[in-house]
Design a protein that fits this description.
By secondary structure, the chain is mostly helical. It contains ten helices and no strands.
Length: 246
């Protein structure tokens, strides 16, 4: 079985590292480099273009009000964590994760793998499907899965098979529903389901690697554009000053 949590975390590790590096570089430029050039241009009486003036203003704000910025960030983090526990907002966030650009398919596969892997383990120990689904839902911890779980339980209680009930929800990959159907027919549901989940976990691994290939150059490009814009803003007045001297 593939370590899903480790693989998924690795998909976000590179963007996070690049983002932190970008913030550190930009902060260093704003705090240490821009004030030096600002003082120089002031002594030379060089008019500052819009981008440079914006950077100078940003530098002043960061150097004078850094404590307020830290407090605002802390407040945003605190409020985000607090309001994320509200049922309505959590439901919206869970739904967004399953439909968000780029990562939607990966998030869907991960939540299904966690949900169905728990269900298979419980069902193999003799727990009823309805109860196993209830516990698996708690492990998945996703509002959309909770909604689907209720519908699956109701369908099973009405006498329908698990595979038939799962086919009504497009969140379950075809390989999983097919394995569940084969397992129900052969009387080896958990064994077939686990095989299907192994295939799903391998698909998650391939998806993570594909995302990393796409994210690495994109994040590097974004970082380069941001740093390049700052450097351009810093040196624009110098180019203008040199052209006047000539």
């Amino acid at each position: 079985q593939i370590d899903i949590k480790h693989k998924v975390n690795s998909a976000f590790a590179y963007p996070v590292v690049v983002g932190i590096m970008c913030i550190v570089i930009v902060t260093a430029l704003v705090i240490f480099i821009i004030p030096v050039f600002s003082k120089l241009y002031k002594q030379l009486h060089v008019a500052l273009p819009g981008p440079t003036q914006a950077l100078v203003t940003l530098s002043v704000i960061v150097r004078q009000w850094w404590w307020l910025i830290i407090l605002l960030i802390a407040a945003v983090v605190f409020l985000s964590r607090r309001f994320s526990k509200a049922p309505y907002l959590k439901a919206k966030w869970d739904l967004f994760k399953l439909n968000m650009p780029v990562f939607a398919r990966l998030n869907r596969m991960v939540v299904v793998s966690r949900f169905m892997r728990t269900f298979a383990m419980l069902a193999s120990s003799g727990i009823s499907f309805v109860k196993a689904l209830d516990i698996a839902n708690a492990v998945a911890n996703n509002s959309k899965i909770s909604e689907i779980t209720s519908q699956l339980q109701k369908s099973i209680e009405e006498g329908n098979g698990l595979a038939e009930s799962m086919r009504k929800h497009d969140i379950f990959p075809p390989i999983i529903t097919q394995m569940v159907a084969s397992g129900e027919e052969a009387g080896e549901l958990t064994a077939m389901l686990n095989k299907g989940l192994d295939f799903l976990d391998k698909d998650i691994d391939r998806t993570v690697k594909t995302l990393l290939v796409k994210l690495e150059p994109a994040m590097t490009l974004i970082m380069g554009i941001i740093v390049g814009f700052i450097l351009m803003g810093v040196y624009l007045p110098m180019f203008d000053y040199m052209s006047r001297i000539k």
